[in-house]
Amino acid sequence: MSLLKFFGLGGPAERSGEGDASKRVREIVQALERLDPDRARHIAAFAYILSRVARADLEISPEETLAMERIIRDLGGLEEAEAILVVQMAKTQSALFGGTDDYLVTRDFFRIASREEKVALLHCLFAVSAADQKISAVEDQEIRQIASEMALDHADFIEARSRYREYLSVLKDPQEPPPPSA
């Protein structure tokens, strides 16, 4: 399965009626479609979950976007332009279908990822949230929810969270209200 199909965007043949896309975008799409389908699914789910946390406070900052692109590039082994495309697709899908698909994508990642990959994702979620120098209470709660959905231990969550302690808004700004309970 290609990343485009995973995100519901179809392949180049399915988009042929959309007009001319830039040559570079077409090259990126072709490069992503050449990835092993399991690897593409893994990268797509990883990027979507990063977007889920960045969007938790209803705003994805430019710093959060850059952090997601760097993480996807480094961990996914993608070129910069490919990582940018993957992150933009994930942000769009997360914004359009977030409430409905958040749990489903996380559950899919839970099934395909090793424990080490889940813990690595947890650390990346905090890194993205801290990219704008502040982890809001809502972002912190969303990361806690994702850790739970991936069946990670509370100790895993606390260990990852402790590395980003100085960015936690609840410690920086005691005026911020706690997130509503689910």
Could you give a short description of this structure?
Helix content is 68%, strand content 0%. With 182 residues, the chain is mainly α.
Task: Please report the total strand number as a whole number.
Answer: 0
Order of helices and strands: HHHHHHHHH
Number of helical segments with 4 or more residues = 9
CATH architecture: Orthogonal Bundle
% residues in beta strands: under 5%
Can you tell me the overall shape? globular
Helix amount, in percent? 55-70%
Number of domains: 1
Distance between the termini: 33 Å
- Top-tier CATH class: Mainly Alpha
Helix/strand/pairing category: mainly alpha
Rg measurement, Å: 17 Å
| CATH topology (fold) name | TerB-like
Give average pLDDT, whole number: 82
How does this model look, in words?
This protein is mostly helical. The chain has a single domain, classed as TerB-like (Orthogonal Bundle), CATH 1.10.3680.10. It has 9 helices and no strands. About 5% of the residues have low confidence.
Which descriptors apply to this entry?
68% helix, TerB-like, 182 residues, mainly alpha
Layout of helices and strands, plus pairs?
Blueprint: H1 3-6, H2 23-33, H3 37-54, H4 62-76, H5 80-112, H6 115-130, H7 137-149, H8 154-162, H9 169-172
Helix pairs in contact: 3-4, 3-5, 3-6, 3-7, 4-5, 4-6, 6-7, 6-8
